[in-house]
Structures are given as structure tokens and as C-alpha cells.
Amino acid sequence: MRPIIIGAGRGSRLKAMTDQQPKCYAPIGGRRILDWTLEAFEGAGLGDPRNVVFIGGYRVDQIRTDYPKMTFCHNRDWQNNNILASLFCAEGFMEEGFVCSYSDILFRDTVVMRALNHPGDIVICVDTHWRDRYADRSQHPEDDAEKVTATGDRIIQINRSISSQEAAGEYIGVARFSSRGAQLLREHYHRVRAQFTGRPWRQASVFEKSYLIILLEEMIERGVDIHMVTTEGDYMEIDTEEDYALANRNWPRTLLDDTAH
Questions:
Q1: Exposed (0-12), middle (13-18) or buried (19+): which is 138, by Cβ within 10 Å?
Q2: Domain segments of the chain as ranges
Q3: Where does 2-245 sit in CATH, by number?
Q4: β-strand 169-177 against 147-151: which pairing, if any?
Q5: What digits encode the pLDDT tens for the residues 127-141?
Q6: How does 77-95 read in b/e, with b if 16+ C-beta sit within 10 Å?
Q7: pTM (predicted TM-score)
Q8: pLDDT tens digits, residue range 175-189?
């Protein structure tokens, strides 16, 4: 089971902060986002950085120099594609199962462990207290959240157009695929890719610009079971300068509160 971090994009909404460094280097509580991610994976029992696959694009050589123990996959066309194509730069590491995460999020090892312990072949992590975070996010509206609806722990829909009132929560960007789940993901990816490369597909202007959630919803509609595990917080996204300020104010404090208890 390999951790795969999807981190090819620049993160332009952080503006000058990413001029000279990748987005995952933004410091939260005195540590890079990437260091928080690696700690969460290690705490969940997924091994040290030598087990981690990092998909890089923007300033990938800087990350490769600073984190030489990680395995790197290079998304050379990162400026013209999106998360789904980026993830499949690491297809060669998927066969035995994997956990993937976005590179601009903060999450706890407990969230990952819930996904690892679930018996399903495809399990995504969902924040059920997601609207609490959006109350302070004027630069990132709820409409942009990757929302889900569910029956029990089985995902019914996953897309941005779900209304906030209907949503069971927000997909945080962490997902686990067993070897069977990875096989299903690969089969559906290549089926759609063969048909839609260079063409509009579902919500994407062209297939190459697709998000992972678009493929997951395609799979659900074709009968693939996708399950969720939930967290009440223990997650933050760093997408804008406002998010960055909120994370520096709130994330270290939540960890101190846990230690106090």
C-alpha cells in the first residue's frame, strides 16, 4: 500500500507565496504542508518517506532535492492537465493498492487509518463538519467544494454541483484503493481516456482537464461501489491566501487542544 501525493500544480491562488517554491512548501505552524502530510502517512502505518510517491510538476526538482528519499513521478504537462491525469503519472505504483492525497491539504493520521480499516475496495475520506470551515472562507465558496451524497457509507454522488443542504460532507482529497479498487480505477480511466482524449467529457472542457471526482462519479454510475469514512474536522485545505492565514491560526491550535486532552 503506497501513499501517492498529487502535487504537480503551482497553486496560483497563493500568489507570491509560490513564486519561488511549490505550494506544498507553504509553512503552517512553522512546518511545510508536505511535512504534515508525511507525518500523517507515517502515523497511519504507511511507512517512512521512502514508501511515498510524489507526483510533481511545478518546481519538482526543488522537492526532489529536499526530499531525496521519496519516489518521484514527473507530470511534464502539468500546465495543460489536471488532478486525474496527474494521478495517472503514478499508475506504475498502483497495482498493490494505494492511498492518494492532494498536496495542499492538512489531515490527521486518524483519518487515513479509518480509510485503511474499511473493508471496501474504494474508500474516500469525507469531512462532515465541512460547512463550519466555509463560514470563514470568503475567497473559496461552498459551490467549489467536492461534495458527496451517501446512503449509509455508500457514496451516491460526488460533484461540486450538489447543493450544500443535500451534501453529506466534503471529499477532503484523501482516498484508499485496494488492489481490486486500483484495478477498477485503471480500467475505467483507460476506457474513458480512449474515447474522450482531446474532447469534452462530463464537467471537463477536455478529458485532460478532468478531476479525480469526475471519474469516481462515472464509476458509481456504472455500478462500482465507493464507500466513505468520515471525519468531523481534522482537515483543512490551503487554496487561497485566506486559507493560509486560517490554517496558521487554527491548525496548530487543534493539535495543542488534542495534546491537552
A1: exposed
A2: 2-245
A3: 3.90.550.10
A4: antiparallel
A5: 999 998 888 888 878
A6: ebeebbbbbbbbbbeebbe
A7: 0.95
A8: 999 999 999 999 999
